[in-house]
Design goal:
single chain; 6 helices; TRAP_DctQ
């Protein structure tokens, strides 16, 4: 069980993003073949690809947070010693965590309104709350990843021996 959780922690976003990219490529490939070889366009392919892309966008926020690849001022941070870098990153992660924790209730309300609305997608007829759940999941995963990074950086700050 511990190994499964560790694997999930290390690979969740990557696996989901690869699956999403592969699904989008296959779906659009089928659409191209259907349109240009068989002369019949699929009504659902572009819609499904768009919805997968939305999910991938919100999942990628969590992935970037986990890997610490975001817009940042590297030259400024590089001027500090190890403990200074850790303090700067810890403060940065604190603000990121506050942001995602602030956004989660709004994403929850957005999802609840989508469920109450009962809207379905035009081409496929799936409930739109499947798509509108993406911000909530993305923000929750991002908050978890930021919290993990936050713990790592503050451990570096308070580690014995300083630098």
């Amino acid at each position: 069980m511990k190994k499964a959780l560790q694997w999930l922690d290390e690979n969740l976003e990557e696996v989901l993003l690869v699956i999403a990219l592969a699904a989008m490529a296959v779906i659009m490939g089928i659409q191209v073949i259907a349109r240009y070889i068989f002369g019949a366009s699929l009504s659902w392919s572009e819609e499904l690809t768009r919805y997968i892309f939305i999910w991938a966008g919100f999942l990628s926020v969590s992935y970037c947070t986990k890997k610490c690849i975001s817009i940042k001022i590297e030259q400024f941070v590089a001027m500090f010693p190890k403990r200074g870098k850790a303090i700067f990153k810890g403060v940065n992660h604190t603000f990121e965590l506050i942001l995602f924790l602030y956004l989660i209730p709004f994403a929850w309300k957005y999802l609840l309104s989508a469920i109450a609305n009962g809207q379905t997608s035009p081409a496929m007829g799936i409930p739109m709350y499947y798509v509108q759940a993406a911000p909530l999941m993305g923000f929750i995963l991002s908050a978890i990843r930021v919290f993990q990074r936050w713990i790592i950086e503050w451990k570096r700050v308070f580690r014995k021996g300083g630098e």
